[in-house]
């Protein structure tokens, strides 16, 4: 049973929806911890704990929304109603996350940070989990599924590039009186307002542009199922009983602890460890986006040549090596001090890092659709929502753990709040480098576990053949 290629127009409208997640990720991964820790004066422990609580709450909502949308039935399909109701809440809560009232005590600021982190992430869950599930439903083709994810990721990278360019050229603009505008409060308000408006606009474009695909989705004619929390746990249990998914789930869980810690510390690394000015930070972030753009077209090719498992392994190890190497070299005294030489090296490594990371990211998303096909063969229903929801649950919990580790580590090494990049002691910088680079060791068990993944192209072709024969009333082939 070979699916027809998804029309380009549908793929493009679908891809636009990734902009919301990418814009949120830029704010959360690049600016948020720095903003509350260094600008608002919230301790590293409180800052890390706030993000940890919010991401844990968000993670718990992912499988709930996934299971709920799997069993939902309406004239707008299973996924679109959830996507629609998320638009305004996401835009409003994201703006107020960066608008805490004046005069709050540290604990009150912690509560504000935690509350709006939870609200933003929950609102995005109602869009993004059904959105990812929608993409997996568009086709059953092993290669076309990767193509759709590539298009989605391309829009995400473009959105990231635009946000970076606007942020550093119009909002966080350095001047003689303020060489580090990312450490002052005022630019964040304009940044949050623009980001909120663009996220809502892109979500609406995606919803409108994909409405024509509702009737042809893989699960569009599946019977409705009443939602209850007990069913969520049953669905999660069934998902984890799938060997392919459980391997993907736990190996990615370990990788996201690494990724979450590095992401939470990224602006501390750029501002304090490397002591880059806003131009250097901007070029670094451009490099990260360019690496993703260069890596995207190569992903389908690597999926064909290496298959999906080895594409993920090479991608994860490659990005970790590119991230950790310059920090280790700096601590060994082998990196140049001249920023005219240092910045191009860091930009080149940022390009290399996301070049590898995008291979893994795209391929894992494509694998989720393959696993949903396997689930349909075993259980007779399509439940992309619970797979993406459970997967997001794992990644967000562990990313939250990484953020908490990052916050606690900042306090452990006595990293000062409201500090000046030029006045940070060499001892604190060295301890920061040790902390940042040593997290990569967690990729050893992650890679070992992923080596056991077996759902390759050949096995998937047999699954699709079995589904086709069952739909045609024929004897289903054995997968043993």
Which features does this protein show?
single chain, 480 residues, mainly alpha, Growth Hormone, Chain: A, disordered C terminus
CATH topology: Growth Hormone, Chain: A
Instruction: Assign the CATH architecture.
Output: Up-down Bundle
- Pick out the low-confidence regions: 475-480
| Sheet/helix structural class | mainly alpha
Principal-axes shape call: globular
CATH class: Mainly Alpha
List the helices and strands in order: HHHHHHHHHHHHHHHHHH
The percent range for strand residues is under 5%
CATH superfamily label: MFS general substrate transporter like domains
Which percent bin holds the helix content?
A: over 70%
Number of strands: 0
What does the radius of gyration come to? Answer: 22 Å
CA-CA gap between termini: 20 Å
Number of domains: 1
Mean pLDDT: 86
Describe the largest sheet.
none
Q: Give the number of helices.
A: 18
Task: Walk me through this protein's architecture.
The protein is mostly helical and 480 residues long. Helices cover 75% and strands 0% of the residues. It contains 18 helices and no strands. Helix 9 packs parallel to helix 15 (384-412). 54% of the residues are buried. Mean pLDDT is 86; it is low at 475-480.
The gist of it:
The protein is mainly alpha-helical.
Helix/strand layout:
Elements: H1 8-16, H2 18-39, H3 44-70, H4 80-97, H5 106-137, H6 142-171, H7 186-209, H8 229-241, H9 243-264, H10 266-273, H11 278-295, H12 298-305, H13 307-331, H14 339-379, H15 384-412, H16 426-438, H17 443-450, H18 457-471
């Amino acid at each position: 049973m070979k699916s027809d290629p998804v029309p380009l127009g549908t793929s493009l409208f679908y891809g636009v929806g990734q902009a919301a997640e990418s814009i949120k990720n830029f704010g959360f991964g690049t600016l948020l911890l720095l903003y509350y820790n260094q600008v608002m004066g919230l301790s590293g422990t409180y800052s890390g704990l706030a993000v940890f609580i919010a991401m844990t709450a968000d993670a718990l909502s992912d499988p709930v929304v996934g299971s709920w949308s799997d069993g939902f039935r309406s004239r707008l399909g299973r996924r679109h109603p959830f996507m629609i109701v998320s638009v305004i809440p996401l835009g409003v809560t994201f703006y107020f996350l960066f608008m805490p009232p004046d005069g709050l005590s540290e604990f009150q600021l912690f509560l504000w940070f935690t509350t709006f982190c939870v609200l933003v992430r929950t609102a995005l869950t109602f869009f993004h989990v059904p959105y990812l599930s929608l993409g997996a439903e568009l086709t059953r083709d092993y290669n076309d599924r990767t193509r759709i994810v590539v298009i989605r990721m391309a829009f995400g990278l473009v959105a990231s590039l635009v946000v970076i360019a606007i942020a550093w050229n119009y909002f966080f603009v350095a001047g003689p009186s303020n060489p580090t505008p990312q450490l002052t409060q005022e630019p964040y308000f304009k940044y949050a307002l623009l980001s909120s408006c663009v996220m809502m606009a892109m979500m609406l474009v995606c919803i409108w542009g994909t409405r024509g695909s509702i009737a042809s989705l893989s699960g569009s004619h599946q019977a409705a199922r009443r939602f209850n929390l007990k069913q969520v746990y049953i669905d999660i249990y069934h998902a984890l009983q799938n060997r392919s998914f459980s391997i993907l789930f736990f190996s990615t869980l370990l990788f996201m602890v690494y990724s979450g810690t590095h992401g939470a510390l990224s602006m501390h690394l750029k501002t304090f460890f490397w002591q880059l000015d806003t131009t250097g930070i901007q070029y670094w972030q451009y490099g990260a986006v360019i690496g993703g753009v260069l890596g995207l077209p190569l992903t389908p090719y690597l999926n064909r040549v290496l298959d999906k498992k080895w594409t993920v392994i090479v991608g994860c190890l490659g990005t970790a090596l590119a991230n950790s190497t310059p920090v280790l070299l700096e601590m060994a005294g082998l990196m140049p001090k001249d920023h005219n030489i240092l910045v191009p090296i860091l930009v080149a490594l940022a390009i290399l890092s996301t070049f590898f990371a995008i291979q893994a990211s795209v391929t894992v998303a494509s694998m989720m659709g393959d696993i949903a096909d396997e689930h349909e063969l075993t259980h007779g229903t399509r439940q992309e929502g619970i797979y993406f929801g459970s997967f997001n649950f794992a990644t967000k919990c562990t990313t939250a753990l990484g953020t908490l580790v990052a916050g606690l580590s900042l306090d452990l090494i006595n990293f000062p709040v409201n500090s000046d990049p030029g006045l940070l002691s060499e001892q604190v910088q060295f301890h920061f480098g040790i902390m940042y680079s040593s997290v990569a060791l967690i990729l050893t068990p992650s890679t070992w576990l992923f080596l056991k993944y077996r759902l390759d192209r050949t096995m998937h072709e047999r699954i699709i053949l079995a589904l086709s024969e069952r739909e045609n009333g024929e004897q289903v082939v054995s997968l043993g």
